[in-house]
Request: fold
Amino acid sequence: MSYVKKVVLAYSGGLDTSAIVPWLKENYGCEVVAFVADVGQGAEELEGVEEKAKASGAFECHVVDLKDEFVESYVYPTLKTGAIYEGTYLLGTAMARPIIAKAQVEVARKVGADALAHGCTGKGNDQVRFESCYAALAPDLQVIAPWREWELSSRESLLDYLAERNIPCSASATKIYSRDANAWHISHEGGELEDPWCEPKDKVWTMTASPEQAPDKPEYVSVKVEDGEITAVNDKALSPFECLEVLNDIGAKHGIGRVDIVENRLVGMKSRGCYETPGGTVMMAALQAIDELVLDKTSRSWKAQLSEQFAQLLYDGRWFTPLQQSVMAAAQSLCSTASGDVVLKLYKGSVTAVQKRSPNSLYSEDFATFGADEVYNQAHAEGFIRLFSLPSRIAALQKQQKG
Reply:
């Protein structure tokens, strides 16, 4: 182990990082500064976290409020790309990692640290996400990943490690699920979810009502979209974070945004996760509705490619890269006409855009009507079809001649 004077640890107050604090001190002989990112995980998660960190042996603890920046500078730009990983996952965990890593580096610079540490396991995506961000923002700082170094291998061994040092910890050996929460979503892994044949138990879900128990009457919510960003909910102008908060509350009540997926991890294995993203699901539906009005056929196809590309780079932890900047610039360009109003119907787990309008809409009732019109000569379609199908016609004629 190389010499380290001071390390900034991405600290959550959970079992893993509670054990990492004394382990770093014992094995690296360094001063440990705990860094806690408030990305909207909730007051309960943050309650007493500074005291926990110091009780574990941290020299000091920095709690940084990142909620507004997270939604404004990471969630909203991602929404503009339409990114959805493997057709279902709205990237809540992946989306939060860049801002957490950036803020951790800023704390490290502030306190004069020479190393960064995280509590990610050697099996997951997050180790790659954090360390890729560190590499882009602070290549001079050493990175310590205890799960890839220590001999502790289970919750029981971590609890025993803390007990031997009289370090208090509220965790227990009977914890079933591994969860990660922020303003955008909450994820659930572990327990019966490790078997894809097992349906998630009711206690898995903590953010949303079950669709079966949701209100029997649908609720309608209106949102205003300006340049690809939701700026108002039910005619009330709000900040990005406030828009998300309101839509989270409304969507959760109606069981919106539950996802159960077996996904491909970056490190090569498949894993099963259950995600709850109520407000984000409503937001995505609203933005897709505006895209339907304002993007022509080839532009929508191009955006679909951008969405796939951005979902992959975000999942893989490539936020601070030229590729991210390039894809984001293209998405921003496509959003220049993405303004309008959408009314969404929320009912027992489903969200449907039932009304949509935009000053930049390419939809014209005069052209699209099934009734009589004076703007479209249907006879013109014959020439278009002959040219459109010309390659097929030529191929068929050649086949006939050879036959």
